[in-house]
Amino acid sequence: MTIYDIFNGDADGICALHQLRLAHPANSVLITGVKRDISLLAQVQAEVGDQITVLDIAMSKNRDALLLALDRGAQVRYFDHHVPGDIPAHPQLTTFIDTCPNTCTSLLVNNHLNGQFLIWAVVAAFGDNMHESAIHTSKTLQLTSTQLDELKELGECINYNAYGESLQDLYFHPAELYQVIHHHRDPFTFIHEEPAFETLKNGYTEDISLAQKLKPEMESTTGAIYLLPDAPWSRRISGVFGNLLATAFPLKAHAILTKRTNGGFVVSVRAPLATKSGADKVCEQFETGGGRKGAAGINCLPEDQFGRFNQIFNTTFDHNE
Q1: Which of 111, 192, 266, 299 is the most exposed place for a label (fewest CB within 10 A)?
Q2: pTM, full prediction
Q3: How far is residue 216's CA from residue 315's CA, in Å, rounded to a whole number?
Q4: Are the C-beta atoms of 265 and 301 separated by less than 8 Å?
């Protein structure tokens, strides 16, 4: 019998698994990757009795592999907040899925664990740009404003590490970063004692300063589109830059298009925080697109479809106004 932990490489996926394994330690096989590498369940060759936990990756992108694992006799727990598509009814499958725009996978895990490691769910919510949910959830912890700011920075830095075209763009492989984090029950010891945090913090500061010098390619009263160059720093900062813009301009939608090495763009879309709606509608109209209402993406947008993307983006968020 093998235990598999399959998780998104961003703050939400890492913090969700961290909570679960603090509560229920296990010697598991870790399967993860860059944030957009979500077809992860296919990497498992499941056998009878295997235990598989899936965290923060859309079931809609893993349904065939999920059905295969279940048919082979594996037990699967599935925690997620993305649109799942049809959820199979199977005695070996247990699901914890909620697509509410104010929740994330780590908050679902926190509910499952009855708040045992709530502080890590707060870190994840900050990393997923759910500041209101993070602050609301943290109230029982009675944290100072300085501590909340530190948790916010930690969540953003963990999330920042997940973005890249390949693992070579990242400072740490997400599985490696999870293993370092997992030595810390208290996030403040990670913040104040762990060299990995300083590495991420310094990288984030350098990369975001470059992004903030850019002007939007298109801007209206309801949205803005930014084009980032083909460079490791822009691939690392793309999602976090979108979150930063969304927070700074909560009434506007934002799209960050980053040029890919092999042509086309990687796209991150953020709906206005005031509505948290529409990002999935934009991205699902493209072959490699998907996500949730508040934040979604396209893995590869061909350059000749930029005009179509621009039109759909504007139409969607003008309508949402």
Answers
A1: 192
A2: 0.89
A3: 18
A4: yes
Question: If we measure between CA atoms, which residue out of 116, 121, 78, 118 comes closest to residue 98?
Answer: 78
Q: Which residues of 5-40 are buried (b: 16+ CB within 10 A; e: fewer)?
A: bbbbbbbbbbbbbbbbbeeeeeebeebbbbbbbbeb
Name the one residue in this structure whose structure tokens are 């793309």: 238
Give 3-state DSSP helix, strand, coil % of the chain, rounded to 5: 45, 15, 35
- Rounded Cα gap, residues 8 and 130, in angstroms: 17
Helix, coil or strand: residue 72: coil
Looking at residue 15, its pLDDT comes to 98
- Helix spans in 212-264 (H): 232-248
The 289-291 sheet, strands edge to edge? 218-219, 223-228, 253-259, 265-270, 295-301, 289-291
Q: In this structure, which amino acid lies at residue 180?
A: V
**Domains in the chain and their CATH numbers?**
3-202 (3.90.1640), 218-320 (3.10.310.30)
Q: Which stretches of the chain score pLDDT less than 50? A: none
Q: Which of 28, 36, 22 is nearest to 2 (CA)?
A: 28
Nearest Cα to 286, choosing from 271, 317, 270, 265? Answer: 265
**Alpha helix segments (H runs only) across the chain:** 11-23, 63-71, 105-112, 118-127, 131-138, 145-160, 174-181, 187-193, 195-211, 232-248, 279-283, 306-320
